[in-house]
Amino acid sequence: MNIAIDIDDTIAATAGYLMPYVSEYFDVTEEFLAENSISYDNLPPRWQGEFVNFARRYFDALIENTPAKPDAVETIRGIRRWGHRVIIVTARTNELYTDCIKTTKAELKNLGIEYDRLVCSFDKLAAYLENDVDLVIDDSVKYCTLAEENGMKAILFTSEKNRPIEAGIRRVSSWDEIRKVIFEKDAQ
């Protein structure tokens, strides 16, 4: 099976890691951000025009040190040991990074993530189709929905951003749950 896996807030705990930098850049407290459910990827309309500047200031310097979510590294290693192909598909581009491929490879290496292919693109659906993906694991309702609409299975990793959205897609809150779902599929 070809499995496409997102990085930010799926493999890596990006939102929490970047919280102090969002606080610093927009000159607000972390408490204010938490109380208003604001993160780097769901800025309020009045701040959205600054997103690219924020990204260019912090992403290259910080992203490669983002911590992994619990059990992510071990589960992805297991997925590959079970004979599946892991394609990392992330919505990162050089609009936000000096070199998104270099930074992302450094992050994946630091995390200890084993993978077969890396794709950095805002057009994740095209990446799924080009890589004959069977299963998508992402925290984006949009990309999980697009995957299912195009004949793939999807697992929605719950995040603060998608928690209030009713999606009709299988939802998980941990990599342990993902391991169980994939093992169930292999057993069938």
Cα-atom radius of gyration: 16 Å
CATH architecture descriptor of the largest domain = 3-Layer(aba) Sandwich
- Average pLDDT, rounded to a whole number, is 93
Strand order of the largest sheet: 3-2-1-4-5-6
Query: How many individual helices?
Result: 9
Oligomer: single chain
In short:
The protein is α/β, with parallel strands linked by helices. The chain is built from 9 helices and 6 strands, in the order E-H-H-H-H-H-E-H-E-H-E-H-E-E-H.
Overall description:
A six-stranded parallel sheet has the order 3-2-1-4-5-6, with helices on both faces. Helix 6 links the parallel strand 2 (85-90) and strand 3. It has helices spanning 14-26, 30-35, 45-48, 51-62, 72-81, 100-111, 124-130, 141-149, 175-187, and strands at 2-5, 85-90, 117-120, 135-138, 153-157, 171-172. It is an alpha/beta fold. It folds into two domains: 2-13 and 67-187, Rossmann fold; 14-64, no CATH class. Helix 5 runs parallel beside helix 9.
Task: Give a topology summary.
Blueprint: E1 2-5, H1 14-26, H2 30-35, H3 45-48, H4 51-62, H5 72-81, E2 85-90, H6 100-111, E3 117-120, H7 124-130, E4 135-138, H8 141-149, E5 153-157, E6 171-172, H9 175-187
Parallel strand pairs: 1-2, 1-4, 2-3, 4-5, 5-6
Keyphrases for this structure?
188 residues; alpha/beta; Rossmann fold; 2 domains; 6-stranded parallel β-sheet; 6 strands; 13% strand; globular
